[in-house]
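Spend some time on this chain, tokens included, and walk me through the fold:

. . .
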Amino acid sequence: MSKKRPYLTKTDGDYEIKVRVKAGCLSTDQLQAIRDISKDYGKGEIHLTVRQEVLLFNIKEEFVEQALKRLDAVGLRGGSAGFRVRNITCCVGARCKNCAWDPLLLARELDEKFGEMELPGAVKIAVAGCPFPCNRPQFNDIGIIGRVKPYVDIDKCDGCGKCIEVCKMNAITLNKQNKAVINQKKCKLCGRCMLNCPISAISAEIQGVTIILGGCGSWPAFSGEILTKMIKVEDTVPLVGKILEYYKENALSEEKRLRPFVKRIGIEKLRKELLQGIEVLM
């Protein structure tokens, strides 16, 4: 059973079912179904994985199909195992006070387009709404990070200094006219200054995402390389599609993750191959 469906794992005679969770969000109906299935067919224990999946434990073999049908009835299914696109993780997005861009819609679209896509190896994707990401996209095969280049309207700025207070990079100072000035070399493009300006004197001059390739969260952990610092949000899905197809067509048999693939091909060549037709904003 588990060989045909790798999200089923047999342990001590019983099965574990790995359940995909789109963008890390579950409805109350889905939570109730998970609770009931675990109670009815297992021992009432579940586990939340680092990839925002749900693991159902101790499911007897005779109840596996019933459990899967009940999951399907509330829009859930097993998955995120084997050589394919694994469960795509996402931060809480606009629910976070530090998030200048809501990544949930993009994460869901990526899941619809590429979720469970079969590949030469496992590909893990994470989407974050800011460059101080809680879900660590830099340690995924493909990391997507929302960025904002801030613009200060000097006619509006009253020199209150709130932007200086919230900037983690010490990238903002006041000039002689008591107006906020942003050092673009230090700026992390997080948008915290924009979000915290009490009079909306700071706005988004450019908004987009950074794409990181070849990260790995296992041992040893490896932070991926920047494919592009910023592209338009709407170009993300086409670019991810190009990345996955390029990996599918060019990976060697031993390259079961993007890290060795990126290392062999080289990030510069990947930029030339993958960014054709994509507008690079920064």
In short: The chain has three domains: 8-73, 90-128+138-144+211-274, 148-206.
